Amino acid sequence: MTWDIKFDFETKFKEGEIGKMMHEAIFAGFGGQGVLLIGQLLSYAAMKEGKNVTWMPSYGPEIRGGTANCSVVISDEEIASPIVDNPNLVISMNLPSLEKFVPRMRKGGTLIINTSLVDKDLKKYPEGADVFKIAATDKATELGNKMAANMVALGALIGRNEIINLKTLKDSLKDVLKGKGEAIIKLDKKALQLGYDLAKEKA
Amino acid sequence: MGKKLLFKGNEAIAEAAIRAGCRYYFGYPITPQNEIPEYMSRRMPEIGGVFIQAESEIAAINMVFGAGGSGVRVMTTTSSPGISLMQEGISYLAGVEIPCVIVNVMRGGPGLGGILPAQSDYFQATKGGGHGDYYCIVLGPSTLQELVEVVFLAFDLADNYRNPVIILADGVIGQMMEPIEFPPEVDISKLPPKKWATTGAKGRKKIILKSLFLDPEKLENHNLHLQKKYKRMQEKEIRWEEINTKDCDLLLVAYGTAARVSKKAVAVAKERGISLGIFRPLTLYPFPYNQLKKAVENGRAKGILVVEMSLGQMIEDVKLSVEGIVPVGFYGRTGGVMLVVDEIIGKAENILKEVM
Predict the structure, then answer these.
(1) How buried is residue B38: exposed, middle or buried, by Cβ count under 10 Å (0-12/13-18/19+)?
(2) How far apart are CA B158 and CA A119, in angstroms?
(3) Rounded-to-integer distance, Cα A48 and Cα B158, Å
(4) Identical fold at B5-236 and B240-355?
């Protein structure tokens, strides 16, 4: 089947188009890195701050051992579609996700790259993008558990682009991680703060 | 309405069903709706309800038949291949007039297909699916808030009309999360009594629920009775939404997730100077034929673009509605491939070029 539609990439990346109305995020990495969880945490925090929000996971067979991702849309207005074609916020926890989603980013977005697992640099980044590289897995390991790398990355994203209050994110952990135990919540709070501080430091 | 809760679509269906008075759930696992039986297996025992993982979808729908026949609020959920297995049971439920709610979280077909979202079971849901002259009420919600309200509505419609109600959702609706508020809980003890139900014949005349009528005249009469009921549904239960239908160049017609992507296309197109409107049916059976025709007659749209996550099913009802007064184009992706906003707008522009 062919589609008689021409893509107008010039228009797609035009400054400001739909960008002012809402934030569209894609968080991607290997299955098990907790990218779906940080999407849920951000969504919950956004709801707490009275915003409209949608969260949509990739649930295809590629999750097993491959890549996982989720799309989060946050807006003050009613959200039409939960499907994100062109994100303005991307967290890339591994190389395949970087190569897949960065070319689809809107102009002037925020990109967080986990350099602990991404040792390659892309030739080109979207125009006007704020690219922040952070060794999230290494930083989390220093905190005591590499599993908190997702939180370091999310903290860094908020440090670069404060779409949600960091405190709201931290306060949301106890609800999103219900039943996971105090130790994990404490570690994740620290990880969020560390990512946030590092991103602020280099701002 | 209560407080806002962040819910996954599938879990919202399960919780809404319980709050709407459903105490009997029978199902068999299939992606992308597995969170529903999982949730029910945990919640039903807490509230004294019944959860059974049946040995197959065929067994599940016949358990629904038994429970519904006794007059209780009952639900089953599955995804496309599972609905195909249930068709015999659904025909019997419609024939015997047993109220029940059936949820189809659609995935790509035909056959085993894939596990990703699709809307390719529209024909099956709205045009019968099983054998015989029958219809199920079919609801196609778009957001998770509408989804939970539709679950309550489905149980009420099922009881009011003594008819199976199908909620036609898809993998996006099932898997996504969105803040929702549940409507007030239904008090089962206050629901109208079902005098036709088989509740035990002690002290009264026995009741037989059956779809077998060997006498042709009796069977024809039964069918005429069913048709009268379907006519009542067509008169009273049609629901739809219109956005900017009066002042648009082109009208998009879409339901469910396709309608959400279409709404985004309307917003993006507006910034590019293209005026689009949306006509969104919520009841897919009964379909808003007259309402859609009126929307076209009362607006200035020069054409229609039907947007579906299939290769063209609802478009047939759209064409029947507008009876050729404007051209009807189509854009669809299927097999789990998502609709793309830019492709909707590109297709809309192509149609407008042809008609302008």
Answers:
(1) middle
(2) 58
(3) 36
(4) yes
DSSP B350: H
pLDDT in tens, chain A (203 residues): 233 333 333 334 344 444 455 899 999 999 889 999 999 999 999 999 999 999 999 877 655 567 899 999 999 999 999 999 999 999 999 999 999 999 999 999 999 999 999 988 888 899 899 999 999 999 999 999 999 999 999 999 999 999 999 999 999 999 999 989 999 999 999 999 999 999 999 76
CA distances from B236 to B126, B154, B192 (A): 17, 14, 20
Question: Hey, which bits of B86-186 come out as E strands?
Answer: 100-106, 137-139, 164-170, 177-180
Chain A residues within an 8 Å CB radius of B267: 18, 21, 80
Please identify which residue in the block is written with the tokens 């970087």: A98
Using CB atoms, which residue from A4, A53, A55 is nearest to B350? A4
Domain edges within chain B? 5-236, 240-355
| Chain B partners within 8 Å of A57 (Cβ) | 175-176
Bond preceding residue B32 cis, omega within 30 of 0: yes
- B5-236 topology per CATH: Rossmann fold (3.40.50)
Residue carrying the six token digits 């019968």: B128
Interchain pair A60, B346: CB under 8 A: no
| ipTM entry | 0.93
Domains of chain A: 22-116+127-201 (3.40.920.10)
Q: Pick from A17, A59, A60: which is nearest to B268 by CB?
A: A17
